[in-house]
Amino acid sequence: MTALERFLRYIQYDTQSEEASRTTPSTDKQRLLGAYLAQELQEMGLEKSHLAENGAVYGWLPATPGREERPVIALIAHMDTAPRVPGGPVKARLVPYTGGEIVLNQEKGIVMTPEEFPDLLEQVGKTLVVTDGTTLLGADDKAGVAEIFAAMEWLVAHPERAHGRVAVCITPDEEVGRGADYVDLKTLGADFGYTVDGGPLGTLEYENFNAAGVRVTFHGVNIHPGEGKGKMKNACLMAARFIAMVPPGEDPAHTAGYEGFYHLCNMTGDESEAVLDWIIRDHDRDRFEARKETFRCLTEVLCQEYGADSVKTEITDTYFNMKEHILPHPQLLDWAREAFRKIGVVPKEVPIRGGTDGARLSEMGLPCPNLSTGGYHFHGVYEYIPTESLDKMTEMIEELLCGID
To answer: Pairing with 376, which of 103, 147, 306, 342 sits 20 to 30 Å away (CA)?
Structure first.
């Protein structure tokens, strides 16, 4: 089965994770795809393939004879999709792209244009898998799952291509920051890993944001507005003051590359209480810590103005930059670069403006850079992936595993 055939099958499973859920995994529907994936690995002949109790999928491809001493490599992807855009039913179609706009949904007037998405200009002559404009596609990260599985099937069918032992792990809940929590490194038994969870074909990522989540709660005093003078403290207005004091221009809409940001994700409230949920991101650890301190200082300023305990800020670190865990193992990057070159793709090393399971796994002791899937515009209705990228990444994984010594 090709990577495209697998991908089109996997995206029919709605596997959105849920941020507020405290279950393991966060949604039961992820287990449906997990059970199917475990069965596929069993049918391919991977050893001890199973769906773990926590929802992760495992399987092991034995080393070919004479290659047992090569490093054990883990290939990791995630089955869940982002929670804030409709996840299904996905109505995908293949578009042979010749240029110009792509009408995703005629009835709703949803169109993808090169003016808004200049990367389309690079896809002329390719066949794109697109949505109908009402859901995400799920290339993040079912494309990675499909590419790993297609490569495993090919290696099983071609024992003449020598490789070491390979551990496959597909996690739930990556999109809500918990994917690495489900990986048992002792069970996995790998020396190094790669997540297949990146963007455009050829990207190789080993730097990511340091990340924190922030909840700022404002406690007001509500009273009849006709009698409010000198007595009312409007929590919504306090929240508005806080937002206005955050450094301007340092949000995702105005930053790129290595520039960090503050991002307001959600706001709720009334006169009595208001809540702001933020995320803080920066590649540089010192700047990251400074950003957290900025929020603490703003909290102190508003408490001085409105009274002690009027504002409470809770900061929770989420993950850290994997770079310091990857650079001591330069062969990981050399193996990936060479594999890309063997399939005729120039590797592009870019910082991740986000995080992957690999960041947490690297911190946990499994050095784990991130490889491309070939997809574009994840987490939205304009998501797409060229079918050619699915094939190329399958080839890249095969070359990577056979090139490790």
So the answer is: 342
**Could you give the CA distance from residue 364 to residue 37 in angstroms, rounded to a whole number?**
25
Cβ-contact 24, 55 below 8 angstroms: yes
3-state secondary structure of 86: coil
Amino acid letter, residue 241 = R
Residue 84, helix vs strand vs coil:
coil
pLDDT value for 167: 98
Q: Which residues contact 192 (CB under 8 A, 6 or more apart)?
A: 71, 72, 73, 74, 329, 332, 366, 367, 368
Q: What pLDDT score does 224 carry?
A: 87
What pTM does this model have? 0.88
Residue 287 · residue 260 · CB < 8 Å: yes
Local structure of 196: helix, strand or coil: strand
How many angstroms separate the CA atoms of 376 and 291, rounded? 29
The Cα 322–Cα 193 span in angstroms is: 13
Each residue's pLDDT tens digit, 28-75: 999 999 999 999 999 999 999 999 999 999 999 999 999 999 999 999
Ordered alpha helix ranges (H), 174-329: 185-188, 235-245, 285-306, 323-326
Residues 6+ apart with CB under 8 A from 71: 164, 191, 192, 404
CB 244 within 8 A of CB 272: no
Burial class (CB in 10 A: 0-12, 13-18, 19+), 308: exposed
Residue 355: the pLDDT is 77
**pLDDT confidence of residue 356:** 78
Q: How far is CA 338 from the centre of its chain?
A: 24
273 beta partners: 219
Q: Helix or strand or coil: residue 13?
A: coil
The secondary structure of 115-152 as a DSSP string is TT-GGGGGGTTSEEEE--SSS---HHHHHHHHHHHHHH
Low-confidence ranges of the chain (pLDDT < 70): none
SS3 339: helix
